[in-house]
Design brief:
CATH architecture of the largest domain: 2-Layer Sandwich
Order of helices and strands: HEEHEHHEEEEHHHHHH
CATH superfamily of the largest domain: CorA soluble domain-like
Low-confidence stretches: 1-12, 16-21
Number of strands: 7
Largest sheet: 7 strands, mixed
CATH class of the largest domain: Alpha Beta
Structural class: alpha+beta
Shape: rod-shaped
Strand content: 5-15%
Oligomer: single chain
C-alpha cells in the first residue's frame, strides 16, 4: 500500500520542535547577535519601499546607506530584510534605527517564541508566517519579525522571499485603499493582517485534508495508513502552538501602550483581533478533529479486530463438539460397541455434519457470522 506523502510543514515543525534551543548562544551574554536556524538564502537581501500620497519608490537590492538616508517629511519607509544569517549587516541596520539588543537577538533566533513588545521607541513583533502552495499540498513556515519605529518606518525580517505580502505591495503601487494616505501604523496593521489571513487559509486547507481523511476512514478504514492519522494529530499540535501567540499580539495592538499607534487605528486592530481569535479557534478545532480522527481510527481497528475474533471464535465453537466426539472414539478402549457396527463410521460423519450445520445456522441467525 502506498503511503501518503506528508506535508512539508509537518517535517519543519518536527525539526523545529526537536531543535536544541539556544545551543549556539550558550554562555553568551543576553542580547548577543547570534543567528540560530537554517540558512535559506545564499546572501541577505534588503528591499526598500518609500511612498507617500503621490509617489512610490522601490529598490529590490537596497544598501544600508539607502535605508539610512532621510526620506523627508510625510513619507513612509518599508524595509524588508530577507535572510537572517548575515548578522553583521542586520546588526548594523538595527543599530542605525536603535533597535534594542535583546530584540536583535529575538530577530536572529528563528526558534524563539512569538511575542510583542511595546516601547516608546518602537513596537516589536516576533511571529511565524505560514504560506501554502496553490494546490495546498505544502506549507512553508518562516520566522518573521515586524518592527514599527519612529520616523514612519517599518522593518520586517524573514528567512526567505515570499509572496505573502504581494497584496500589500500592490495596494501601495496602485494607491488603492488607505495605505498611502495613512501612517506607518496602518502599514503595520496591513502586514500583520496578511499574516493572520494566511493562518486562516492554511487552517481551511488542512481542514479540507482532514475531511478527506475522515471520509476515507468511514468508507475504507482498512486502506488508511496509521502513520497518516497519528502524524496529523502530532503535527497539528505543533501548528496550533505556532498560531496561538497571534491572539496575544493582536490583543496588545488592540490596546496599545505605544504612542506610535494612533487612536484612529483602533477599529482596524479590533478587526485584526477578531481575525486572530478566529484563526486560533480554527487551529483548536483542527486539534479536536485530529484527536477524534485518531480515536475513530483506533475504534475502527478495534472493531475490525473484534469482528475477526468473533468469526474465529464461532468456528472454534463449531469444531469443539466435533473434537469432543473425535476424542471419544479415538480412545483405545477394548470394548466399544460402536466399533462393531458397520454403519458407525458414516453415522459419525452424519453427526459431524448435522452438528456443524445446526451451529452454523444458529450463529447466522444471531448475526455472529
Amino acid at each position: 500500500m502506498k503511503r501518503p506523502r506528508r506535508r512539508a510543514w509537518l517535517s519543519y515543525f518536527e525539526k523545529s520542535a526537536r531543535r536544541p534551543r539556544h545551543r549556539a548562544s550558550l554562555g553568551a551574554p543576553p542580547g548577543s547577535p547570534i543567528h540560530i536556524g537554517e540558512r535559506r538564502l545564499d546572501e541577505t537581501r534588503i528591499a526598500l519601499t518609500i511612498f507617500d500620497r503621490e509617489t512610490v519608490e522601490r529598490r529590490t537590492e537596497a544598501t544600508l546607506e539607502d535605508c539610512a538616508r532621510d526620506t523627508g517629511p510625510g513619507k513612509i519607509r518599508l524595509i524588508e530584510v530577507m535572510g537572517l544569517h548575515d548578522t553583521d549587516r542586520i546588526v548594523a541596520l538595527c543599530e542605525h534605527f536603535r533597535v534594542p539588543s535583546l530584540i536583535q537577538e529575538d530577530i536572529l533566533n528563528t526558534s524563539g517564541r512569538s511575542k510583542i513588545e511595546e516601547h516608546a521607541e518602537g513596537v516589536y513583533i516576533i511571529t511565524r508566517l505560514l504560506t501554502h502552495s496553490p494546490d495546498g499540498a505544502d506549507v512553508d513556515v518562516q520566522h518573521l519579525a515586524v518592527l514599527l519605529l519612529p520616523g514612519e518606518t517599518v522593518l520586517t525580517f524573514r528567512e526567505a522571499p515570499t509572496t505573502a505580502f504581494d497584496p500589500v505591495h500592490q495596494r501601495i503601487d496602485t494607491g488603492k485603499g488607505r495605505i498611502r494616505r495613512s501612517g506607518a501604523d496602518y502599514l503595520l496593521w496591513a502586514l500583520i493582517d496578511m499574516v493572520v489571513d494566511h493562518y486562516l487559509q492554511v487552517t481551511v486547507s488542512i481542514d479540507e485534508t482532514l475531511a478527506r481523511l475522515e471520509e476515507s476512514l468511514e468508507t475504507t478504514p482498512e486502506q488508511i495508513d496509521s502513520t497518516a492519522v497519528f502524524a496529523a494529530k502530532k503535527d497539528i499540535n505543533h501548528l496550533h502552538r505556532g498560531i496561538r501567540p497571534i491572539r496575544e499580539i493582536a490583543t496588545a495592538l488592540y490596546h496599545p501602550d505605544s504612542d506610535l499607534v494612533r487612536p484612529e487605528m483602533h477599529p482596524f486592530f479590533r478587526d485584526l483581533h477578531d481575525h486572530a481569535i478566529q484563526a486560533v479557534e480554527a487551529s483548536e478545532d483542527l486539534r479536536e478533529t485530529a484527536a477524534s480522527l485518531r480515536d475513530f481510527y483506533l475504534s475502527s481497528v478495534s472493531n475490525r479486530m473484534n469482528e475477526i475474533m468473533k468469526v474465529l471464535t464461532c468456528f472454534s465453537a463449531i469444531f469443539l463438539p466435533l473434537t469432543f466426539l473425535a476424542g471419544i472414539y479415538g480412545m483405545n478402549f477394548r470394548h466399544m460397541p460402536e466399533l462393531d457396527w458397520p454403519l458407525a463410521y458414516p453415522a459419525l460423519w452424519i453427526a459431524f455434519g448435522l452438528i456443524s450445520a445446526v451451529m452454523f445456522w444458529f450463529f447466522r441467525r444471531k448475526r455472529w457470522l
